[in-house]
Write a structure and sequence with these properties.
2 copies of one chain form a homodimer. Chain A is mostly helical. Chain A has a domain of about 140 residues: Tetracycline Repressor, domain 2 (Orthogonal Bundle). Chain A is built from 9 helices and no strands. In chain A, helix 6 packs antiparallel against helix 7 and helix 8 runs antiparallel to helix 9. The radius of gyration of chain A is 18 Å and the shape is elongated. The termini of chain A are far apart. Chain A binds a DNA duplex through helix 4.
Chain lengths: ~220, ~220
DNA sequence: CTCAAATGAGACGGCCACGTCTCACGCGGA
DNA sequence: TCCGCGTGAGACGTGGCCGTCTCATTTGAG
């Protein structure tokens, strides 16, 4: 099983599917399942480029397949949040790191979050994602108490924005309505505009890809 | 088949399901289908409070059921956009009307948009939704050219935000993480913050429900 | 009360996907 | 060359859901 079949250099450097899923097969299945949530094993097999029998050899059952993909996605989410270290440093920069990290994840995980998901996670991993979410809520409160973030934004709403705008960004890219770079930039700027107090906006910077500067 | 089983006065006055769906049965089916996209007819029937046979008498087939719900949701969407008259008056106020109207729709339509949807719409209705989207894009461009909206926001991204934040708002309410009022207010303010130039923000007002004033 | 229409309960056939199994083929190493 | 391993193709049983049908019961209007 080869590595990423074609991974040209993308200026935005989204995480490659292989950094999220253990397998090229898992990655392909996830990609197809994201845009066809009710796909049959037959269909998934074709998407992976393998026969149905081999797909069953790799994943004992359809439920196992879904479960593994959800596991991988959740692990990647937790890892991204932890690596962003939302509790460290100035809230504005911490926010930028979080958005950057999760934004890179969006194209890969994206619509997968729409699967039932929660039901398929081990308890331990579920606890880890809950803890990651709690860390993000704490970041919001920390920024508010420090006077950086708008106090009227409920941390819960921040989580909702983060989740669904990631989905929206991934979906826009999939439909060809936005480029990956544009989607990522818009995601970042929208979250910044929603959360930051207006006078803090100019302190918010993300690593913007070189080819898509403002306008 | 009674009317809305219990429709207490809600301060936010979201549109009642009966303003969107032709039936109480359709409304109940839509509600259940939104959070269980793969629900069986048996399950749907229980959600509607009717036997499976009766459900089949009301909807000739499962596909017909899905199609009707999508039709209704799309019609409500088109109607809401038209009533908001995005082409009239100052862009900032037009935006407020759009967000207000669609925000009221979110709890009802909400997750239904996640269904395959597009495949189940008649061509004429599909054209109407496309036209509604085009009107919204025009509103964005109009606001940008008039100096009200931030020029770096792609109209396409505005549509994505609108769609997915509506879904996120509906989902947050469903999970009990936000009240309907809070979700609606956050939706409005996030879209305003994302789209309006900072110096225009104070001109943006939505009809805020009386019980949830700022903080 | 009477009767017609609607409903619930359940059976039935058909279909499709799942999951298991067998077998033939190809490929690589000894 | 021979052998072992993985794969593809396909058959097969099973189960669930769909859609249709029948029939007993209920509901509501006159």
């Amino acid at each position: 099983m080869s590595n990423a079949p074609a991974s040209p250099f993308t200026p935005l450097r989204p995480v490659s599917p292989d950094q999220v899923f253990v397998d090229a097969a898992a990655a392909a299945a996830a990609r197809h399942l994201a845009l066809a949530p009710a796909a049959s094993m037959q269909e998934l097999a074709r998407a992976v480029g393998v026969s149905r029998a081999t797909l069953f050899r790799r994943f004992p059952s359809r439920a196992a397949l879904i479960a593994e993909l959800c596991q991988s996605a959740a692990q990647a989410y937790v890892r991204a949040v932890n690596e962003a270290a939302p509790h460290d440093g100035p809230p504005t920069q911490a926010l930028a790191r979080v958005v950057e990290g999760l934004g890179r994840l969006a194209p890969v995980v994206g619509l997968l979050g729409l699967q039932t998901l929660g039901e398929h996670l081990e308890a331990s991993l579920l606890a880890q994602t809950a803890q990651a979410e709690e860390e993000l809520r704490r970041l919001v409160r920390r920024g508010q108490e420090g006077g950086y973030f708008r106090v009227e934004v409920d941390p819960e709403w921040f989580l909702a924005m983060l989740t669904w705008l990631m989905v929206g960004a991934a979906d826009s890219v999939r439909l060809g309505r936005l480029t990956a770079n544009a989607a990522h930039r818009h995601l970042s700027e929208t979250l910044a505009a929603a959360l930051l107090r207006p006078d803090e906006l100019h302190h918010f910077t993300v690593r913007t890809p070189p080819d898509s500067r403002r306008r």
